Every structure is written in structure tokens, then in C-alpha cells.
Amino acid sequence: MTLQKLSSATLSSLDPQVGVPAYDRTTVSPGIVHFGVGGFHRAHQAMYLDRLMADGKALDWGICGVGVLPQDRRMADVMAAQDCLYTLVVKSPDGTLEPRVIGSIVEYLFAPDDPEAVLARMTDPATRIVSLTITEGGYHVNQVTGELDANDPGLAADLEPGATPGTAFGLVVEALARHRAAGTKPFTVMSCDNIPGNGHVAKKMLTAFARLRDTELADWIDAEVRFPNCMVDRITPVTADSDREALAERFGVEDGWPVVCEPFTQWVLEDDFGGVRPAYEDVGVQVVEDVEPYELMKLRLLNASHQALCYLGYLAGYRYAHEVCQDKLFVDFLLGYMTEEGQPTLPAVPGVDLEQYKHQLIERFANPEVRDTLARLCAESSDRIPKWLVPVIREQLAADRGVERSALVVASWARYAEGVDEQGEPIEVVDRLRDKLVERAQHNREDPLVFVSDRDLFGDLVDDERFVTAYKASLASLHERGARATLEDLAG
């Protein structure tokens, strides 16, 4: 098989098994600027637009990707080398691979090299949406107060008089300021991150940031800019060298950064745009009036369950999500968490059978082809646990319902953050608060409440006797008997 380096010039000569854009990409023009072009965006929002374009629609809604972080330079290089093309490989549990080249990204700008080019693209009248996948931590939310944490050095630098913006927030607010000054219609800001009320959070934080710069600008953003909420779902593990090799060996495609994902995909989007938008509903997006029930379902069942399996699974010796979810002891624990603690905090979810959804989640987690690493799920926990699991604990306590499983999840994070697994092997803790977390966790044995005494992460949970009792018992068991025996005790 002849190896073809992916580019516009080689599309027509790729293996017929590889789907390619059926539309003329030279007719596609940018209409969306997207910050944070990682695997998830390329497996999700960019894929839906590619579907629309394949139907001859949305050709004026091409994506201009933007990178702002130093590590985004690698994506810029790959995008430049491949004419912004990449291969999306859907991996089914039976081993079937379905590769498709996605063509909806038509431009990529690396902001540190030319911030003015990014601002020019955002102020172009053709840009009607600016979308974000900048991770949970990218919104600079103080976990306890819910207000903007303006201590970030990047934000502080962007607020200096005459500064050239270097952060996503700085660039978006400067572009909006230019729209206001010119009297032109602003773009819609569409957050696609895993945050409860992501549109509300984006509006609150961006407006608060703008207010530090110009009160009138902040008032204008508050009144004129739309921030729809949405819920996004597709398991998209980090691309591995083995994924590149499989694409080359089985299909003859040399792709510097393909994306792999599961077959399942869901996007629930609030119809709250400042102007026209792509006809997302034509390709399976659920466009609704209220996203919150779907969002809470995903955050408290899927996302919180990822946290429920990752630390315990890692401590027990597993390294992939599918390994954990092929072990009945862990599956029973996950279903117990979802049924007894997560689900009771949910409102009714229109059109969704929650019993079916919970078992479908286990099936998705157990897909051996996706090979989602526990290390990925354990990363950046300080941005995840406070948003996904702590609200469940609070609601359960307020309603006088059980928190034993949730407390065990928090205890397993504390035990994981000690930096050594049950076999005595080092754990690489990946978190923006790593130093603080590890320092606290290493005192877990002499002070079992030291980890959850961090009020920036847990608020006043340490003052609640029911939670503290369950948490201390779980942490002691993890230390004395290990993860597996702790789960066996819970099951018994």
C-alpha cells in the first residue's frame, strides 16, 4: 500500500475506505472562530459542520482555529502541513475502524505569532460565532465564590493599558470592544466545555473580565452578546502513536495528528444566538430551549462516573477505562453511584430513559478499542471534582440521602494525589494545582482531613459530620486494605 501524506492534493488518491470531503473546500469560507483546537473539538463540533457541508449546506460556516498556548504551536504546524485536514477515526468495540477526513477547518492561526490576525478574523462581519473548548480551568472561576479569579498572570497582563492580548479572554474581549466601537453586530460566544451552564459561566467570566477593563464595555457585552448553553458528549482519548501507525498501515494515510473517538456522539444546544447559525439540527444536534437537564445528566452520571472509576481503578492496578469497566466489582460500584447518588439529584430529562443511559455509559466506558487512559481521566481533577461531584454531595446531604460512594471517590482522589500507587510505584499527578494537592495529600495519614480542608476546592464540606465520617472511613480503608478490598466491603 502506497503511503499518502494527508493534504488537499492527495485527497483524491486516498484508499477508498477513507471518507473524504464530498464538497469543494475552496468554496468554504470562515464563519466560526474556535479557540482550543484539540481532539474533542475535532471529533465533535468540526465533525458536525463537516456533515452539514457534505449535504451542501453551511459552506459559509468554515472554522478558523486559534491556538493561544505555547503547546498549540504543534497543532499549528500540523494544520499548516496538512491544509487544515485531519482524519477522524471512529473505533467500534468489535475493532472496526471508520476513518474520515474532516474538511470543515479551513484556517488555523497561532495567536502568539500574530494576535492582530486573530482579532481581524473575529471582527470580520463573516464571523458570527466564536466558540470555545479551553478546558474547565480556562474560565478562571474561583471554585468557592463562583466569581472570576483575576489573579492569573495572563489575565493581569492583558489588563495592562495598551497591552496586546495574549489569552483567549483578552482576545475575545478586545474583538468585542472593536465591534462596539465600530457599531457592528457582535458574534455569539458558544462555549462547548464540560461546565454546568457553560454559556452562563462564559458570559459571567468574560463580562467580569471586561469590567476590570471598561465598565461600559462590560455593560454592552451583557446586553448585546449571546452565550448559548450546550452539552457535548463523545469520548475522545489522547491520540497515541499507535493510532497514527494503524492509520498508516491499514489505510495508507500519513496524518500528523489524527483523532480517534467512540461511535457515540451527542450535542444538545440551546437555541440562543445573536443572529443566524448553522442548521445543526439537520445533522443530529438536539437544538432545545433548555439544556440544563441534559447537561446535569452528563456531568453527574458520565463525567462524575469517570472520576469514580479512574482513581480507584488506577490504585488497583488498572491503566485503561475499559479494563475497569470489564470488572464486575467496579461496574457495580459505578452503577451504585449513578443510581443511589447521582441520579437522585437530576431533574427529569426529556426524551431520555435514564436506566438505559446508565447501562449505555458502562458499555461506552468498556469499549476496548478506544483505550481511554486512566491517567487522562485523573488529570486536572481540581477543575473537575468541584464541578461534577461536589454538587452531588451537597444535594445529597441537603436531602438527607447517602454520600458513601461519593465520599469514597473524593477519598480515592486524595489517596491518588499522594503520588504513589498500591504497588509502591510513583504516580505522575497532572494538575494545575499539583504542588498544593500533593503536599496536602502526603499528610493524609497523620491528618485525614487535610485534603478536604482546602476550602477553595471543597467549601465547607469538611464541616459536615456525615460527609467527614464517610470520607475518613474510606480513606482509612484505602490506606489499610487498598481499593479493591474497599469496594468489596462497600458491596458487602
From TrEMBL:
One short Pfam name that applies is Mannitol_dh
Q: Where is the Mannitol dehydrogenase C-terminal domain?
A: 290-478
Give the catalysed reaction(s), semicolon-separated: D-mannitol 1-phosphate + NAD(+) = beta-D-fructose 6-phosphate + NADH + H(+)
Gene Ontology biological process terms in this record: mannitol metabolic process
An example of a GO molecular function for this protein is: mannitol-1-phosphate 5-dehydrogenase activity
Q: Which SUPFAM superfamilies match?
A: 6-phosphogluconate dehydrogenase C-terminal domain-like, NAD(P)-binding Rossmann-fold domains
Q: What class does this enzyme belong to in the EC scheme?
A: oxidoreductase
Sorted keywords for this record are: NAD, Oxidoreductase
Name recorded for this polypeptide: Mannitol-1-phosphate 5-dehydrogenase
Q: Which family does it belong to?
A: Belongs to the mannitol dehydrogenase family. UxuB subfamily.
**Which residue ranges does the record assign to the Mannitol dehydrogenase N-terminal domain?**
31-279
The organism named in the record is Kribbella italica
- Please state the Enzyme Commission number of this protein: 1.1.1.17
